[in-house]
Amino acid sequence: SQSKSVDDPASTPAATVTPVSKKAKSSNEAEMAKTYDYLFKLLLIGDSGVGKTCILFRFSEDAFNTTFISTIGIDFKIRTIDLDGKKIKLQIWDTAGQERFRTITTAYYRGAMGIMLVYDITQEKSFENIKNWIRNIEENAAADVEKMLLGNKCELNEKRQVTRVRGEQLAVEYGIKFMETSAKASINVDDAFFTLARDIKCKMEKRMEANNPPKGGHQLKPQVEPRKAPSWLSKCNLF
Ligand SMILES: Nc1nc2c(ncn2[C@@H]2O[C@H](COP(=O)(O)OP(=O)(O)OP(=O)(O)O)[C@@H](O)[C@H]2O)c(=O)[nH]1
Ligand SMILES: [Mg+2]
Questions:
Q1: Which residues have C-beta within 8 Å of that of residue 214, sequence separation ≥ 6?
Q2: Which domain, by its residues, includes 197?
Q3: Atom of ligand 1 at shortest range from CA of 185
Q4: Is 233 domain-assigned?
Q5: Is 90 exceeded by the pLDDT of residue 23?
Q6: Pocket test for ligand 1, best of 45, 53, 157 (most atoms within 8 A of CB)
Q7: Where is the signal peptide (predicted)?
Q8: What does the alpha-carbon distance between residue 43 and residue 194 come to, in Å, rounded to a whole number?
Q9: Residue 164 C-alpha to ligand 2 middle, in angstroms?
């Protein structure tokens, strides 16, 4: 289920629907036979050591590793999920938390449709830094990017430095969703990604509806010819 390739962040569109074409230009045969309806690009950010890579490893392989191998630059994994009868391919970018990779990782914000902000409930500092990660998002990501706050390592209750309530309050302050997770004990990891994906899908479908209002019986006749659907829409295999 894993596929890896180099992706140029500059070529990834801002948080928009990624058109899925059956004739997509791709050298990869598997890519040509599209097995999904939507492609969502997600991003994991947060201090080094909070468990971003482990969360993604749990989500993509349902496994866990206790050795800490700090991410160098950026990496990604793929998992396709089913949401209300639609196949959603999640391309999840895992960023390095270390400061020295900030230039590289920041380049990936722009293409993200959803961002997971992760802290470690046993590290107060990683929680305090969430406000700085939020600022990074505000400065570099699309204005309408979906965000979610995760307090990871929640099975380590005896080492806890950040109460669940503080996590909840911070999320309310930013108007985003919050969950405590454990990559190790496999708590809420699937739930978190499914929630973020569902929020993106809902927002996207609302936007598509607004662009294509259903034809009712009592609508006023348009004065001008209705605009043609954008080319990417006609290419989309949903229509
Ligand atoms: N107890 C516990 N340990 C965890 C959990 N998630 C991750 N860890 C451990 O925390 C350490 C750091 O995890 P990583 O996933 O590599 O952290 P990261 O956020 O990717 O760090 P960078 O790549 O440097 O940004 C590793 O030793 C993991 O085993 C968890 O849910 N519970
Ligand atoms: Mg990592």
A1: none
A2: 35-209
A3: 31
A4: no
A5: no
A6: 53
A7: none
A8: 14
A9: 23
